[in-house]
């Protein structure tokens, strides 16, 4: 038995030596939907990761080793996400994983990483509970981190925009029937309740629904002054198209997915004016952002020079830099050491969203706080700053504010 | 007081009218897809479960013609139809004929589903994975009709559905080819003895079925968004329509579509948008239990 093991490990060593591959690379798992309705986020995310890894490798890599992305398409399906997690952990032996666009997929897959003690950096998924799945004291260590704006940040921002800044009191919520939509709907209702407002209508729709008449008529009859949305691009576009059809136009304010290219393109003129929280707007107002946007446009050459999902790309880029800094500080690719380093990052990490100064600690695994995202607006088929003062101050980095 | 009451009543009627309009438009979207199921069932007792994918391919080919090659929408229609014909014949030759030959009861189910998945993957590689916008050939502003709004494109879909129904009925009843189709359905062996090339009739029906699906795809794409996954849910709903209306009746498909469409919109408004798909499915179960051939279907008597 032992003999056999020795022999096989010898062969394995010879193989890896002769191929000169993998043994010395630091593998990072990249999981997201590169197909289906949320693929514009997944593909932008993958590209953001690629750009960051290329830059880092060009500058000598991490710990003298090259970073390598192991990309897998989870198709936004929970069961597929779990399969991929198993593959990445057991077969590919990744050091850490970034990605997850869909809250449901992340919730289903993260347990495997937690058990394997491999850090996960959620760079797009926004479900509030994602980083709170494995909290102490039940679990000694939490391996789940995030650098996207979670729903408990986005929902209050949306309500703030609708109620305080634009003075609407009659609001309808339209959310899709997925985990994402329904958890978001709960967050919105909670945030409205904090302002003593009950939504006049709360409606549901399914992925791939092509008719929104019933939902919109209910909102209209209830006298809604604006529609708050939680869904993904294609169906959000059907909402905008449905409003055009009914000849009833009220503002759409919703989660960051209103910036998805497949919303903007499919809604056409009906989507103009939609507003959403954004951690990143495609505006080259700092040196770092300019370089990032140029690198993206050069490698992907998207239509009309527009990044499909700028937020996903930017957060993905930052997620790799955060991990790289942690691996460097840990001086090792051991999952626990990387996790400890993330919780106590000494280096200030310069990303495109912001500069991360001690983004995480033992209790707080969220890098983005309420003050960081700005409001974006769809204008001329692009997402721009909704408020002029935000645009002017766009170059001033918004740093994480920790609640005291 | 009375005035206020009347105004309120008027408002209620307007909403109902709007729900019915949208329901009909939605139902006709399902109906134009459902015709494809009927055409193959009418000859070979088999169904092309890749109907949704034939629809998707038609829409995407149409999009390429209109958007990339700048061909006029109306001129693109026959090209898409031709594409559908070829694609359908291909499905029959590869997937269905071997199953029929060995008199397999279920082989064609798996093979049409498998071909559908392959088509979807091919489409994802050619056209990408995102939902795309199909430029509308008609103005996109809504029209007012008796107090409720309707899109010109929706009227076109309704017209298309009725046209398809009429041509199916005309074809089956009035043409010699149609008679061959009906004969093949009634008794394949007897038809063969009468000199009908039943194999060709079945291939032809698959070609026609995919042609109608491709045509339906281009017709509904400006309303539904276009993409590799567009056929999945729509194909399923259309299947429900075909079952409710009856797999042998052109009229049944239209009525079945209207019933399912209006059930969805009115349930969504009057009960809850969370339950809008329920009444249609309950109806489907009821029909299967009470009149398995569908509301308008002729129940075939099979002598064994």
Explain this structure to me?
The complex is a heterodimer of chains A (404) and B (304). By secondary structure, chain A is α/β, with parallel strands linked by helices. Chain A folds into 2 domains: 2-149 and 286-368, 3-Layer(aba) Sandwich (Rossmann fold), CATH 3.40.50.2300; 152-278 and 375-392, Response regulator (Rossmann fold), CATH 3.40.50.2300. Helices cover 44% and strands 15% of the residues of chain A. Chain A has 13 helices and 14 strands. Chain A has helices at residues 2-19, 39-58, 78-91, 103-116, 151-165, 179-194, 213-221, 233-246, 261-267, 287-300, 310-330, 335-343, 388-392; strands at residues 26-32, 67-73, 96-99, 120-122, 144-146, 171-176, 201-205, 226-230, 252-254, 275-278, 349-350, 355-356, 374-379, 382-385. A 5-stranded parallel sheet of chain A has the order 2-1-3-4-5, with helices on both faces. In chain A, strands 7-6-8-9 form a 4-stranded parallel sheet, sandwiched between helices. In chain A, helix 2 packs across helix 11 (310-330) and helix 3 (78-91) runs parallel beside helix 4 (103-116). The radius of gyration of chain A is 22 Å and the shape is globular. Residues 14-22 of chain A have low confidence and may be disordered. By secondary structure, chain B is mainly alpha-helical. Chain B has one domain (2-290). Chain B has a two-stranded antiparallel ribbon with strand order 1-2. In chain B, helix 2 (51-68) runs parallel beside helix 4, helix 5 (152-174) packs across helix 6 and helix 6 (176-186) crosses helix 8 (198-224). In chain B, 52% of the residues are buried. The model of chain B has no long low-confidence stretch (mean pLDDT 87). The interface between A and B is large, with 35 and 41 residues.
Count of DSSP-assigned helices of chain A: 13
State the fourth-level CATH superfamily of the largest domain in chain A: Response regulator
Q: Indicate the low-confidence ranges of chain A by residue numbers.
A: 14-22
What is the 3D shape of chain B? globular
Give the helix level of chain B as a range of percent.
over 70%
- Show the largest interface: A-B, 35 and 41 residues
| Order of SSEs of chain B | HHHHEEHHHHHHH
Number of strands of chain B: 2
Radius of gyration of chain B: 20 Å
Total of domains of chain A: 2
Radius of gyration over C-alpha positions of chain A, nearest whole angstrom: 22 Å
Oligomeric form: heterodimer
